[in-house]
Amino acid sequence: MVEARESKSNQDPLEFVKALDHTTAIKILLQLCQEETIAERVVDMAKSSLSEVDAEEIAEEVFECLNSILVEDLWDNSGETRYGYEDPADVAFEMIESEVDEYVQAMLEYRQLGMKHEEKKYCQGILEGILRYGNRGTNEFHAWAPDDPYTIANSIFKEWKSHNTEEDINDIQAIYTSYFG
Question: DSSP label at 52?
């Protein structure tokens, strides 16, 4: 019996965690978060991880995402359809919005968590990436949506600034100035 106890105490807990599928590991983490001291540590660790927002990295991702849209996808989704006519300009706008949406959702998650500084940096990255694409997009799709990046960036900025201070708004406004001023 003593041997069994020693065997259990020598087992590495990380090996057990690594053996779990992601769903089960998350369920266990959620159960552990019910304990106050562990929950505090989890929140601290999560905030630390989430606070590592790099606006330039996000800008580059957004730019690359938009610059990789295939014009053939626009052609496939617009024009005559079974349900009528889909204007290529409307479809192009929707395609850009769709590509940017996951980044906007991530920004909004920071807002919900009360992480205003990180939300601002995320917004900066999104806007910088969209505006960079508007100015320097090189894919064939870009020619079909020359003004859409600016319209979408303006919409994102307008929504973001309705929840922020004048000082933060001025910081983001500087991005626009660098492109239009």
Answer: -
Q: Cβ distance 66 to 133 under 8 Å?
A: yes
Query: Of 164, 77, 178, 64, which Cα lies nearest the Cα of 123?
Result: 164
Phi, psi angles (nearest 5°) of residue 80: -65, 130
pLDDT grade, residue 83 (50/70/90)?
A: confident
**Token reading at 71:** 């014009």
Instruction: Please tell me the number of Cα atoms within 13 Å of 54 on its side-chain side.
Output: 5
Residues 161 and 163: their CA atoms lie apart, in Å, by 5
Q: Is the pTM of this model over 0.85?
A: no
The rounded distance, in Å, linking the Cα atoms of 56 and 67 is 16
